[in-house]
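*Target chain*
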Amino acid sequence: MLRFILSRIGMAVPTVILVAVVVFFLIRLIPGDPAALMLGDMADPASVAALRTDLGLDKDLLTQFAIWTSNVLRGDLGVSITTHEPVAYLVLQRFQVSAGIVLAAVALASAVAVPAGLVAALKQNSRLDFGLVAIAALLLSVPTFWLGLIILLIFGLKLGWLPVVGYVSIAEDPTNGILYVLMPIATLFLHEIGVLLRMARASALEVLRLDYITHARAKGLPESAVLWRHVFPNAFAPTWTLIGLVLGNMLGGIAVVETVFTIPGLGRLLVDAIFARDYPVIQGCLLFIAAIYVLVNLIVDLFYPLFDPRVKVT
């Protein structure tokens, strides 16, 4: 088991290092002088030169990368140009908002999609199966921003059940805080049901064709027992892997939903930093999102043997 854990961690570390290199040099490939872009066209040369010195842009790329890497290893992602706050503080503060929305959406989507996929597989080629597959395909094909706008239009503007603009922390006001995040959670929840349901159905269909399922039915076990005792444990492992990928993708792609619903999360921070040309914040957000994505998939790999009885770890 220890060897398995070390091997997975050993594969994750080079990935994070590669991502850090790519993030750093991609930012440097953006056309124009970052200092001049930040200060605007009317800035005097002295201010531009001073900002270049503060950002370390007057040094060669390898020296800049060495300094930046050294600071990142100490937890220092730099200082925001627009707010003059530490980037690490901004990222962690906004990540709490995004993580709560994403985790809630993924948990609800998994709780609904996995049982629905198993039932669809058990009732293959029935009206229920066709209906569930059609709903999954429809939800999967709808763009997230359009789905969010429709939910906002119906429940926010037309019915007036939920607040349209703003955000209240759940820690400060649990009741109002939940109302403000219901629509973002619902948007992500509906969008991810499709992909999880299809995966759960495909995995269950593969397991249902195996001989031991036929043997279990021949012994007279009821279909519910066959489904939950034999099919679910063996069919959930691929879906568990997909849940990890969905979770990582949602954390990286939540910017659209946060922009639609004006939620001050990590994605909204990245979008605002891009418009403001706040390069330290852009670098910090991209590196943090990539690190979280790698971490989530590492956790999925480590827990995979628990969900797949066919995998033996030494």
